[in-house]
Amino acid sequence: MVSLKFASSAVAAAAALSIALCAAPPAFAADKIVLGETGSEFAPASDAANRPPATFFTINDVLAKLDRQRGRGPNAMRTASLTPSNTATDALPAAKPQPPVGPEPFGLFTFRAPESNLWSKWRGLESDLVKEQAVLAQCREDASGCPSHAAQFLRLINAVKHKSGRERLDEANRAVNQAIRYMNDYAQHGVSDRWTAPLATFATGKGDCEDYAIAKYIALSEAGFPRDDLRLVLGRDRAIRQDHAVLAARFEGRWLILDSRLSEIVDASGVANFTPMFALDQRGVQLFAAPYARLPLGRELDPTPAAASADDAEWTGSEALSDSGGIQLNVLPLLL
């Protein structure tokens, strides 16, 4: 019986000594643990009442004492446990950097497009517009000698001019949509894509999406709407995989879309399934580019064209062979 008590006491004392030696530095262990004289033999169990009791502690106690000794405050406390990286948490993830919003339609940026067939078409259209402006000027001076289609377009311009605010844009959109009957370029001109100035379009009363957009661009410009706030936008309808053109107008800081298929103008942010490719205005042909976000540590993403494929790098202007209205788009150089 005595030997069993002695064995139990010895095991307990050895365990206490092992914890003290492993868990605390010598200064701390000497301060907190008393087991009798160093190197002395363990006393029999009958002498346990004469020995000071062993003092136990945790690693958190050690860290807290060290913090207080290092001047971190009387109530400083540091724990040894860390939250594992694979522990589930209800904390919200860190927010990803948002790309900046560009000043152009659809929140994008633009830069000068390389020389291409689009530049040739735009310069040819500008030449036709100069000639038609001379016709309009003569019609204003002498209405009796004005061609009927030019007089019709002048009446449209005057109707737009007498409106104000957003109603001016509404009037231009509705009036042009009503004056022109949709017909694709193959059916009317025998070519895949042809851009026509407004008087030529009104002379036939027929045109495709670019002709609608060009007529609205000139009507608003002649009515006094700032050209800096107008963009002819060539893009792609991803839903039907056809080329399409619309007019974008900036009003009170927001870009609005005038579309040949819609009687009402819509906010650019609400246009679905349309990817803008090129913007045309008095600066020439501009290529749309998506904005990029700044990455941590000052590294930035390169602003590269987000073309879907090599086949999506050219505007063809080809539309479905149909004389009915509707958005028609084909190929695409840039994706949002």
Give a short synopsis of this structure.
The protein has nine helices and nine strands. With 336 residues, it is an alpha+beta fold. It folds into two domains: 2-69, no CATH class; 105-294 and 303-312, C8orf32 fold.
Describe it:
It contains 9 helices and 9 strands. It is an alpha+beta fold and 336 residues long. It folds into 2 domains: 2-69, no CATH class; 105-294 and 303-312, C8orf32 fold (Roll), CATH 3.10.620. The chain has a 7-stranded antiparallel sheet. Strands 2-3 form a two-stranded parallel sheet. Helix 5 (148-161) packs antiparallel against helix 6 (166-179), helix 5 (148-161) crosses helix 8 and helix 6 (166-179) packs across helix 9 (209-222). It is elongated, with a radius of gyration of 40 Å.
Task: Summarize this structure as a short list of keywords or feature phrases.
336 residues, alpha+beta, C8orf32 fold, 2 domains, seven-stranded antiparallel β-sheet, two-stranded parallel ribbon, 9 helices, 35% helix, disordered N terminus, disordered C terminus
Question: What is the ordering of alpha helices and beta strands?
Answer: HHHEHHHEHHEHEEEEEE
As a whole number of angstroms, the C-alpha radius of gyration is 40 Å
Please, how many domains?
Answer: 2
CATH class of the largest domain: Alpha Beta
Q: How do the strands line up in the largest sheet?
A: 1-9-8-4-5-6-7
Question: If classified by CATH, what would the architecture of the largest domain be?
Answer: Roll
How many DSSP helices? Answer: 9
The amount of beta strand, in percent, is: 5-15%
| Main pleated-sheet profile | 7 strands, antiparallel
